[in-house]
Design goal:
Elements (H helix, E strand, L loop, with lengths): L2 H4 L8 H12 L7 H19 L7 H15 L11 E9 L22 E8 L5 E6 L3 E3 H15 L6 E5 L7 E3 H10 L10 H17 L4 E3 L1 E8 L5 E2 L21 H5 L8 E9 L2 E9 L15 H13 L4 E6 L5 E2 L9 H20 L1 E4 L5 E8 L9 H9 L9 H12 L4 E8 L2 E5 L3 E2 L1 H10 L4 E5 L8 E2 L4 H4 L15 H14 L2
Parallel strand pairs: 3-5, 4-6, 11-12, 17-19, 18-20
Antiparallel strand pairs: 1-2, 1-7, 2-3, 8-10, 8-14, 9-13, 10-11, 15-16, 16-17
Length: 515
Protein backbone atom coordinates (compact mmCIF):
# COMPACT_ATOMS: atom_id res chain seq x y z
CA UNK A 1 0.00 0.00 0.00
CA UNK A 2 1.36 3.44 -0.85
CA UNK A 3 1.83 6.11 1.80
CA UNK A 4 -1.00 8.09 0.22
CA UNK A 5 -3.47 5.20 0.46
CA UNK A 6 -2.59 4.76 4.11
CA UNK A 7 -3.92 8.26 4.74
CA UNK A 8 -7.40 7.42 3.44
CA UNK A 9 -10.20 7.03 5.96
CA UNK A 10 -13.53 5.27 5.60
CA UNK A 11 -16.59 7.32 6.46
CA UNK A 12 -18.13 4.15 7.86
CA UNK A 13 -15.70 4.27 10.75
CA UNK A 14 -17.17 5.18 14.13
CA UNK A 15 -16.04 8.63 15.19
CA UNK A 16 -13.80 7.29 18.00
CA UNK A 17 -11.98 4.98 15.59
CA UNK A 18 -11.65 7.82 13.11
CA UNK A 19 -10.03 10.00 15.72
CA UNK A 20 -7.59 7.25 16.65
CA UNK A 21 -6.46 7.07 13.03
CA UNK A 22 -6.27 10.82 12.55
CA UNK A 23 -4.23 11.66 15.66
CA UNK A 24 -0.93 10.05 14.48
CA UNK A 25 -1.18 12.06 11.26
CA UNK A 26 -1.50 15.27 13.27
CA UNK A 27 1.93 14.61 14.80
CA UNK A 28 3.58 13.79 11.45
CA UNK A 29 5.52 16.21 9.31
CA UNK A 30 4.02 16.62 5.86
CA UNK A 31 5.29 18.34 2.75
CA UNK A 32 4.30 21.86 3.76
CA UNK A 33 3.27 21.15 7.37
CA UNK A 34 -0.13 22.48 6.36
CA UNK A 35 -1.61 18.99 6.62
CA UNK A 36 -0.31 18.49 10.14
CA UNK A 37 -1.56 21.87 11.25
CA UNK A 38 -4.89 21.29 9.53
CA UNK A 39 -5.36 17.88 11.11
CA UNK A 40 -4.73 19.34 14.57
CA UNK A 41 -7.38 21.99 13.98
CA UNK A 42 -9.83 19.31 12.81
CA UNK A 43 -9.06 17.16 15.84
CA UNK A 44 -10.04 20.03 18.11
CA UNK A 45 -13.27 20.35 16.12
CA UNK A 46 -13.89 16.59 16.28
CA UNK A 47 -13.28 16.53 20.02
CA UNK A 48 -15.89 19.24 20.44
CA UNK A 49 -18.36 17.27 18.32
CA UNK A 50 -17.67 14.13 20.32
CA UNK A 51 -18.43 16.03 23.52
CA UNK A 52 -21.69 17.23 21.99
CA UNK A 53 -22.53 13.75 20.67
CA UNK A 54 -21.15 11.25 23.23
CA UNK A 55 -22.56 8.32 21.28
CA UNK A 56 -20.31 9.10 18.37
CA UNK A 57 -23.04 9.81 15.81
CA UNK A 58 -22.69 12.99 13.80
CA UNK A 59 -25.07 14.84 11.52
CA UNK A 60 -24.71 14.92 7.76
CA UNK A 61 -23.31 18.45 7.81
CA UNK A 62 -20.54 17.39 10.17
CA UNK A 63 -19.75 14.34 8.01
CA UNK A 64 -19.48 16.58 4.97
CA UNK A 65 -16.97 18.71 6.90
CA UNK A 66 -15.01 15.62 7.86
CA UNK A 67 -15.02 14.35 4.28
CA UNK A 68 -13.71 17.67 2.95
CA UNK A 69 -11.06 17.77 5.66
CA UNK A 70 -9.88 14.25 4.97
CA UNK A 71 -9.74 14.98 1.25
CA UNK A 72 -7.21 17.73 1.96
CA UNK A 73 -5.17 15.35 4.08
CA UNK A 74 -5.30 12.64 1.43
CA UNK A 75 -3.97 15.10 -1.13
CA UNK A 76 -1.13 16.17 1.20
CA UNK A 77 1.46 13.37 0.89
CA UNK A 78 3.65 12.49 3.83
CA UNK A 79 7.40 12.97 3.77
CA UNK A 80 7.92 9.72 5.63
CA UNK A 81 9.05 7.76 2.58
CA UNK A 82 12.79 7.53 2.05
CA UNK A 83 12.77 9.02 -1.46
CA UNK A 84 10.98 12.22 -0.46
CA UNK A 85 12.85 15.50 -0.45
CA UNK A 86 13.61 18.13 2.16
CA UNK A 87 12.00 21.55 2.19
CA UNK A 88 13.14 24.75 3.91
CA UNK A 89 10.87 27.65 4.80
CA UNK A 90 12.46 31.00 5.68
CA UNK A 91 11.13 33.82 7.85
CA UNK A 92 12.37 37.30 8.70
CA UNK A 93 10.63 39.99 10.77
CA UNK A 94 11.49 43.34 12.32
CA UNK A 95 12.66 43.14 15.94
CA UNK A 96 13.46 46.84 16.42
CA UNK A 97 11.89 48.47 19.49
CA UNK A 98 10.00 51.74 18.89
CA UNK A 99 11.14 55.21 19.96
CA UNK A 100 11.20 55.71 23.71
CA UNK A 101 11.10 52.02 24.62
CA UNK A 102 13.75 50.42 26.79
CA UNK A 103 16.74 48.51 25.50
CA UNK A 104 19.30 46.67 27.59
CA UNK A 105 21.06 49.85 28.69
CA UNK A 106 19.33 52.89 27.18
CA UNK A 107 15.96 53.94 25.77
CA UNK A 108 15.55 54.20 22.00
CA UNK A 109 16.36 57.73 20.86
CA UNK A 110 16.47 57.13 17.12
CA UNK A 111 15.90 54.29 14.66
CA UNK A 112 18.57 54.01 11.96
CA UNK A 113 18.71 52.56 8.45
CA UNK A 114 19.50 48.98 9.50
CA UNK A 115 16.87 47.46 11.78
CA UNK A 116 17.16 44.58 14.21
CA UNK A 117 15.95 41.30 12.77
CA UNK A 118 14.38 38.07 14.01
CA UNK A 119 14.97 35.53 11.28
CA UNK A 120 15.43 31.86 10.73
CA UNK A 121 14.45 28.70 8.92
CA UNK A 122 12.07 25.77 9.31
CA UNK A 123 13.47 22.47 8.06
CA UNK A 124 10.81 20.04 6.88
CA UNK A 125 12.03 16.46 6.55
CA UNK A 126 11.33 12.92 7.66
CA UNK A 127 10.45 13.83 11.24
CA UNK A 128 8.80 16.78 12.96
CA UNK A 129 9.91 20.21 11.72
CA UNK A 130 13.09 21.81 13.06
CA UNK A 131 13.17 25.57 13.69
CA UNK A 132 16.36 27.63 13.95
CA UNK A 133 15.99 31.30 14.89
CA UNK A 134 18.48 34.12 15.50
CA UNK A 135 17.44 37.45 17.05
CA UNK A 136 19.36 40.74 17.13
CA UNK A 137 18.86 41.16 20.89
CA UNK A 138 21.29 41.13 23.78
CA UNK A 139 19.74 38.02 25.32
CA UNK A 140 16.58 35.91 25.64
CA UNK A 141 16.36 34.27 29.04
CA UNK A 142 14.36 31.93 31.24
CA UNK A 143 10.60 31.96 30.61
CA UNK A 144 11.15 34.44 27.79
CA UNK A 145 13.22 31.79 26.02
CA UNK A 146 10.58 29.15 26.76
CA UNK A 147 7.83 31.36 25.36
CA UNK A 148 9.79 32.09 22.19
CA UNK A 149 10.41 28.41 21.51
CA UNK A 150 6.81 27.47 22.26
CA UNK A 151 5.40 30.16 19.98
CA UNK A 152 7.59 29.17 17.04
CA UNK A 153 6.93 25.47 17.65
CA UNK A 154 3.17 26.01 17.55
CA UNK A 155 3.48 27.98 14.33
CA UNK A 156 5.70 25.38 12.67
CA UNK A 157 3.68 22.36 13.78
CA UNK A 158 6.43 20.90 15.94
CA UNK A 159 7.44 20.70 19.62
CA UNK A 160 9.57 23.23 21.56
CA UNK A 161 12.34 20.65 21.99
CA UNK A 162 12.96 20.91 18.23
CA UNK A 163 13.27 24.70 18.25
CA UNK A 164 16.55 26.60 18.83
CA UNK A 165 16.32 30.32 19.57
CA UNK A 166 19.49 32.38 19.94
CA UNK A 167 20.36 36.02 20.52
CA UNK A 168 23.33 37.61 18.78
CA UNK A 169 24.09 39.73 21.88
CA UNK A 170 24.21 43.22 20.38
CA UNK A 171 24.19 45.77 23.21
CA UNK A 172 22.12 48.51 21.56
CA UNK A 173 19.18 46.11 21.59
CA UNK A 174 16.49 44.77 23.93
CA UNK A 175 16.76 41.85 26.32
CA UNK A 176 13.92 39.46 27.09
CA UNK A 177 13.24 37.67 30.39
CA UNK A 178 9.63 36.93 31.37
CA UNK A 179 10.72 35.37 34.68
CA UNK A 180 12.44 38.59 35.73
CA UNK A 181 9.42 40.54 34.47
CA UNK A 182 7.20 38.50 36.79
CA UNK A 183 9.55 38.96 39.76
CA UNK A 184 9.70 42.73 39.27
CA UNK A 185 5.92 42.88 39.11
CA UNK A 186 5.43 40.71 42.21
CA UNK A 187 7.90 42.80 44.21
CA UNK A 188 6.22 46.03 43.09
CA UNK A 189 9.50 47.55 41.90
CA UNK A 190 9.64 50.59 39.63
CA UNK A 191 12.11 51.65 36.95
CA UNK A 192 12.75 48.25 35.39
CA UNK A 193 11.04 49.04 32.11
CA UNK A 194 13.50 46.89 30.17
CA UNK A 195 11.73 43.84 31.59
CA UNK A 196 8.36 44.91 30.19
CA UNK A 197 7.60 42.08 27.78
CA UNK A 198 4.91 43.67 25.59
CA UNK A 199 7.23 44.36 22.68
CA UNK A 200 8.97 40.99 23.00
CA UNK A 201 5.63 39.20 22.78
CA UNK A 202 4.78 41.26 19.71
CA UNK A 203 7.96 40.09 17.98
CA UNK A 204 7.17 36.48 18.89
CA UNK A 205 3.75 36.96 17.32
CA UNK A 206 5.29 38.47 14.19
CA UNK A 207 7.71 35.57 13.86
CA UNK A 208 4.96 33.01 14.40
CA UNK A 209 2.77 34.61 11.75
CA UNK A 210 5.72 34.76 9.36
CA UNK A 211 6.36 31.04 9.84
CA UNK A 212 2.72 30.18 9.17
CA UNK A 213 2.81 32.27 6.00
CA UNK A 214 6.11 30.72 4.88
CA UNK A 215 5.24 27.04 5.33
CA UNK A 216 3.03 26.67 2.25
CA UNK A 217 5.85 28.23 0.21
CA UNK A 218 8.65 26.10 1.62
CA UNK A 219 11.28 25.50 -1.03
CA UNK A 220 12.59 22.14 -2.11
CA UNK A 221 16.19 21.59 -1.01
CA UNK A 222 18.31 19.12 -2.94
CA UNK A 223 21.80 19.85 -1.60
CA UNK A 224 23.63 21.07 1.49
CA UNK A 225 27.15 22.33 1.89
CA UNK A 226 29.67 23.29 4.56
CA UNK A 227 32.34 25.94 4.29
CA UNK A 228 34.83 27.50 6.68
CA UNK A 229 37.18 30.43 6.39
CA UNK A 230 39.47 32.46 8.60
CA UNK A 231 38.27 35.92 9.60
CA UNK A 232 41.28 38.20 9.84
CA UNK A 233 41.79 40.89 12.46
CA UNK A 234 38.44 40.79 14.23
CA UNK A 235 38.46 38.40 17.20
CA UNK A 236 40.80 38.51 20.19
CA UNK A 237 40.69 37.00 23.65
CA UNK A 238 39.61 39.34 26.44
CA UNK A 239 41.54 37.54 29.21
CA UNK A 240 45.14 37.82 27.96
CA UNK A 241 46.52 39.99 30.79
CA UNK A 242 47.36 37.35 33.41
CA UNK A 243 49.58 38.16 36.38
CA UNK A 244 52.31 36.00 37.95
CA UNK A 245 49.73 34.76 40.45
CA UNK A 246 47.63 33.32 37.63
CA UNK A 247 44.89 35.90 38.08
CA UNK A 248 43.32 37.76 35.16
CA UNK A 249 44.08 41.45 35.25
CA UNK A 250 42.72 44.23 33.05
CA UNK A 251 40.23 43.05 30.45
CA UNK A 252 40.76 43.76 26.76
CA UNK A 253 37.09 44.29 26.01
CA UNK A 254 35.05 44.96 22.90
CA UNK A 255 37.09 48.11 22.35
CA UNK A 256 40.46 48.97 23.79
CA UNK A 257 42.73 52.02 23.77
CA UNK A 258 45.38 50.75 26.19
CA UNK A 259 48.54 50.28 24.08
CA UNK A 260 49.97 47.49 26.23
CA UNK A 261 46.74 45.44 25.95
CA UNK A 262 46.36 46.11 22.23
CA UNK A 263 49.94 44.97 21.65
CA UNK A 264 49.36 41.61 23.31
CA UNK A 265 48.68 38.54 21.10
CA UNK A 266 45.19 37.62 19.98
CA UNK A 267 45.18 34.80 22.51
CA UNK A 268 42.97 31.73 22.29
CA UNK A 269 40.21 32.23 19.68
CA UNK A 270 38.43 30.27 16.97
CA UNK A 271 39.44 32.36 13.94
CA UNK A 272 37.03 30.69 11.54
CA UNK A 273 33.51 31.53 10.46
CA UNK A 274 31.54 28.37 9.70
CA UNK A 275 28.79 28.12 7.08
CA UNK A 276 26.01 25.62 6.47
CA UNK A 277 24.09 26.20 3.25
CA UNK A 278 20.96 24.72 1.68
CA UNK A 279 20.47 24.71 -2.10
CA UNK A 280 17.78 23.78 -4.58
CA UNK A 281 20.07 22.46 -7.29
CA UNK A 282 22.28 25.51 -8.07
CA UNK A 283 20.12 28.07 -6.25
CA UNK A 284 20.92 28.86 -2.61
CA UNK A 285 17.85 28.90 -0.36
CA UNK A 286 19.29 29.58 3.11
CA UNK A 287 22.79 30.28 4.42
CA UNK A 288 23.60 29.80 8.12
CA UNK A 289 26.83 31.21 9.54
CA UNK A 290 28.43 31.19 12.97
CA UNK A 291 31.37 33.15 14.37
CA UNK A 292 32.58 33.37 17.96
CA UNK A 293 33.02 37.00 18.97
CA UNK A 294 31.25 39.67 20.99
CA UNK A 295 29.41 41.80 18.39
CA UNK A 296 30.22 45.28 19.73
CA UNK A 297 32.07 47.99 17.84
CA UNK A 298 30.63 51.02 19.69
CA UNK A 299 27.34 51.35 21.57
CA UNK A 300 25.34 53.20 24.25
CA UNK A 301 24.00 55.79 21.76
CA UNK A 302 20.33 54.85 22.13
CA UNK A 303 20.18 53.73 18.50
CA UNK A 304 19.17 50.08 17.96
CA UNK A 305 21.91 48.46 15.91
CA UNK A 306 22.69 44.96 14.62
CA UNK A 307 26.33 46.11 14.85
CA UNK A 308 29.11 44.70 12.71
CA UNK A 309 27.84 41.06 12.49
CA UNK A 310 24.42 42.31 11.35
CA UNK A 311 26.04 44.60 8.79
CA UNK A 312 28.19 41.70 7.53
CA UNK A 313 25.03 39.63 7.23
CA UNK A 314 23.42 42.49 5.27
CA UNK A 315 26.41 42.73 2.92
CA UNK A 316 26.24 39.01 2.17
CA UNK A 317 22.50 39.31 1.67
CA UNK A 318 23.15 41.88 -1.03
CA UNK A 319 25.90 39.75 -2.55
CA UNK A 320 23.62 36.71 -2.66
CA UNK A 321 20.10 38.02 -2.53
CA UNK A 322 18.18 34.86 -3.45
CA UNK A 323 19.02 33.23 -0.08
CA UNK A 324 18.14 34.23 3.47
CA UNK A 325 21.30 34.75 5.53
CA UNK A 326 20.98 33.79 9.20
CA UNK A 327 23.95 34.51 11.44
CA UNK A 328 24.61 33.08 14.91
CA UNK A 329 27.09 34.09 17.59
CA UNK A 330 29.36 31.20 18.51
CA UNK A 331 31.01 30.62 21.86
CA UNK A 332 32.27 34.18 22.16
CA UNK A 333 31.87 34.84 25.89
CA UNK A 334 35.57 35.57 26.38
CA UNK A 335 36.16 36.84 22.84
CA UNK A 336 35.81 40.40 21.51
CA UNK A 337 37.29 42.75 18.90
CA UNK A 338 39.34 44.76 21.42
CA UNK A 339 42.72 44.20 19.81
CA UNK A 340 41.43 45.59 16.52
CA UNK A 341 38.83 48.07 17.71
CA UNK A 342 39.41 51.37 19.49
CA UNK A 343 35.68 52.14 19.67
CA UNK A 344 35.76 54.82 16.98
CA UNK A 345 32.80 54.82 14.64
CA UNK A 346 34.70 53.97 11.40
CA UNK A 347 35.74 50.68 12.99
CA UNK A 348 32.20 49.32 12.72
CA UNK A 349 32.31 49.09 8.92
CA UNK A 350 35.92 47.89 8.96
CA UNK A 351 35.00 44.97 11.23
CA UNK A 352 31.82 44.28 9.25
CA UNK A 353 33.70 44.06 5.96
CA UNK A 354 36.30 41.74 7.46
CA UNK A 355 33.61 39.39 8.73
CA UNK A 356 31.71 39.62 5.43
CA UNK A 357 34.93 38.71 3.57
CA UNK A 358 35.22 35.59 5.72
CA UNK A 359 31.57 34.69 5.12
CA UNK A 360 32.06 35.13 1.37
CA UNK A 361 35.14 32.93 1.30
CA UNK A 362 33.41 30.26 3.40
CA UNK A 363 30.56 30.23 0.88
CA UNK A 364 32.95 29.96 -2.03
CA UNK A 365 34.76 27.06 -0.34
CA UNK A 366 31.58 25.10 0.35
CA UNK A 367 30.96 21.97 -1.69
CA UNK A 368 27.38 20.95 -2.42
CA UNK A 369 26.34 17.42 -1.44
CA UNK A 370 23.03 15.73 -2.25
CA UNK A 371 20.53 15.91 0.59
CA UNK A 372 17.65 13.59 1.48
CA UNK A 373 15.39 13.35 4.51
CA UNK A 374 17.52 10.52 5.93
CA UNK A 375 20.49 12.92 6.16
CA UNK A 376 18.65 15.04 8.74
CA UNK A 377 18.55 14.52 12.48
CA UNK A 378 17.95 16.32 15.75
CA UNK A 379 19.15 15.25 19.19
CA UNK A 380 18.66 16.87 22.57
CA UNK A 381 20.10 16.59 26.07
CA UNK A 382 18.32 18.25 29.00
CA UNK A 383 20.90 19.32 31.57
CA UNK A 384 20.82 20.85 35.04
CA UNK A 385 23.45 23.56 35.37
CA UNK A 386 25.03 24.01 38.81
CA UNK A 387 24.10 27.24 40.60
CA UNK A 388 26.82 29.69 41.57
CA UNK A 389 27.40 29.55 45.32
CA UNK A 390 27.15 33.32 45.75
CA UNK A 391 23.47 33.37 44.72
CA UNK A 392 21.21 33.63 47.77
CA UNK A 393 17.53 34.29 47.17
CA UNK A 394 16.71 36.22 50.36
CA UNK A 395 19.81 38.41 50.10
CA UNK A 396 19.17 39.11 46.42
CA UNK A 397 15.58 40.20 47.05
CA UNK A 398 16.71 42.55 49.83
CA UNK A 399 19.43 44.07 47.64
CA UNK A 400 17.12 44.29 44.66
CA UNK A 401 14.65 46.39 46.62
CA UNK A 402 17.39 48.85 47.53
CA UNK A 403 19.37 48.99 44.29
CA UNK A 404 18.94 51.36 41.37
CA UNK A 405 17.85 49.59 38.17
CA UNK A 406 20.92 49.71 35.95
CA UNK A 407 23.19 47.41 34.00
CA UNK A 408 22.17 44.30 32.12
CA UNK A 409 23.09 41.22 34.16
CA UNK A 410 21.54 42.58 37.34
CA UNK A 411 20.10 41.13 40.51
CA UNK A 412 16.74 40.67 38.79
CA UNK A 413 18.28 38.58 36.03
CA UNK A 414 20.21 36.42 38.47
CA UNK A 415 17.23 36.03 40.79
CA UNK A 416 15.14 34.86 37.85
CA UNK A 417 17.75 32.24 36.96
CA UNK A 418 18.04 31.09 40.58
CA UNK A 419 14.30 30.61 40.94
CA UNK A 420 14.14 28.67 37.69
CA UNK A 421 16.89 26.26 38.68
CA UNK A 422 15.48 25.78 42.17
CA UNK A 423 12.15 24.89 40.57
CA UNK A 424 13.86 22.05 38.71
CA UNK A 425 14.14 23.69 35.29
CA UNK A 426 16.60 22.12 32.87
CA UNK A 427 18.18 23.56 29.75
CA UNK A 428 18.09 21.78 26.41
CA UNK A 429 21.43 21.36 24.67
CA UNK A 430 20.64 20.33 21.10
CA UNK A 431 22.38 19.25 17.93
CA UNK A 432 21.28 19.49 14.30
CA UNK A 433 22.58 16.80 11.95
CA UNK A 434 22.79 17.54 8.23
CA UNK A 435 24.90 14.87 6.57
CA UNK A 436 28.41 15.19 8.02
CA UNK A 437 27.67 18.61 9.56
CA UNK A 438 26.75 19.03 13.22
CA UNK A 439 25.44 22.31 14.60
CA UNK A 440 25.39 22.48 18.40
CA UNK A 441 23.04 24.85 20.22
CA UNK A 442 24.08 25.93 23.70
CA UNK A 443 23.05 28.47 26.36
CA UNK A 444 24.65 31.59 27.78
CA UNK A 445 27.83 33.52 27.06
CA UNK A 446 29.92 30.44 26.52
CA UNK A 447 33.71 30.56 26.55
CA UNK A 448 35.40 29.70 23.25
CA UNK A 449 37.04 26.66 24.84
CA UNK A 450 33.71 24.84 24.52
CA UNK A 451 33.55 25.46 20.79
CA UNK A 452 37.13 24.34 20.23
CA UNK A 453 36.54 21.25 22.38
CA UNK A 454 33.44 20.32 20.37
CA UNK A 455 35.41 20.47 17.14
CA UNK A 456 38.18 18.35 18.66
CA UNK A 457 35.66 15.72 19.81
CA UNK A 458 34.71 14.91 16.21
CA UNK A 459 37.49 15.86 13.79
CA UNK A 460 35.84 13.55 11.26
CA UNK A 461 32.80 15.85 11.11
CA UNK A 462 32.16 19.51 10.35
CA UNK A 463 31.15 20.94 13.73
CA UNK A 464 29.77 24.44 14.22
CA UNK A 465 28.20 26.08 17.26
CA UNK A 466 25.54 28.63 18.15
CA UNK A 467 25.71 29.93 21.72
CA UNK A 468 23.61 32.60 23.49
CA UNK A 469 20.56 30.32 23.60
CA UNK A 470 18.84 30.54 26.97
CA UNK A 471 20.65 33.54 28.44
CA UNK A 472 19.62 32.76 32.02
CA UNK A 473 23.04 31.46 33.19
CA UNK A 474 24.89 34.58 31.97
CA UNK A 475 28.58 33.92 31.34
CA UNK A 476 29.64 30.26 31.30
CA UNK A 477 33.35 29.84 31.86
CA UNK A 478 35.54 26.76 32.10
CA UNK A 479 36.35 25.17 35.44
CA UNK A 480 39.85 26.66 35.32
CA UNK A 481 38.60 30.17 34.56
CA UNK A 482 36.69 30.71 37.80
CA UNK A 483 39.68 30.69 40.17
CA UNK A 484 41.51 32.93 37.66
CA UNK A 485 39.00 35.70 38.35
CA UNK A 486 38.17 38.39 35.84
CA UNK A 487 34.93 40.07 34.87
CA UNK A 488 33.34 37.14 33.01
CA UNK A 489 33.45 34.73 35.94
CA UNK A 490 32.77 37.30 38.65
CA UNK A 491 29.67 37.31 40.87
CA UNK A 492 27.84 39.94 38.80
CA UNK A 493 28.38 38.14 35.50
CA UNK A 494 28.19 34.37 35.91
CA UNK A 495 25.34 32.56 37.66
CA UNK A 496 26.78 29.05 37.39
CA UNK A 497 29.46 27.16 39.31
CA UNK A 498 32.77 25.85 37.88
CA UNK A 499 31.28 22.34 37.68
CA UNK A 500 29.28 23.57 34.69
CA UNK A 501 32.16 22.58 32.40
CA UNK A 502 31.80 18.87 33.13
CA UNK A 503 28.04 19.03 32.57
CA UNK A 504 28.21 20.76 29.20
CA UNK A 505 31.24 18.87 27.90
CA UNK A 506 29.49 15.57 28.65
CA UNK A 507 26.32 16.73 26.93
CA UNK A 508 28.24 17.83 23.83
CA UNK A 509 30.12 14.55 23.71
CA UNK A 510 26.92 12.52 23.90
CA UNK A 511 25.22 14.62 21.23
CA UNK A 512 28.17 14.43 18.87
CA UNK A 513 28.36 10.66 19.28
CA UNK A 514 24.78 10.24 18.06
CA UNK A 515 24.26 9.15 14.48
Amino acid sequence: MTSRSKNRFSLSLPINALLRRLRPLANRDVSSSAGALLSRRFLRYFDLQRCLFPGGSLGSRCWRTIFASLLVLVLTPSLSSADDFVRVATFDVDATPPLGSAMAYDPVKRVDELTLRCRGIVILGAEQPIVLCAVDWIGIANEGHDAFRSALAEAAGTVPARVAVHALHQHDAPGCDFTAEKIIRELGLQGYSRFDGKFHRLVMQRASEAIRAALPNAKKVTHFGFGESMVKQVASNRRVAVGPDGKVGSMRGSSCKVPSLVAMPEGLIDPNVALLGFWNEDTPVAILTSYACHPQSYYRLGIPSPDFPGIARFIRGQDLNMALHVHFNGAGGNIAAGKYNDGSQPKRMILANRLADGMREAYEKSTRVSLSATDLGWNSESVSLPIATHLNQADMITKLKGTDPKGYISLADQLAWLERVQAGHKIDVTCLRVGDVRMLHLPGELFVEYQLAAKAMRPDLHVMMAAYGDYGPGYIGTAASYPEGGYETGPTSSSVAPEVEAVLMSAMKRLLSEK
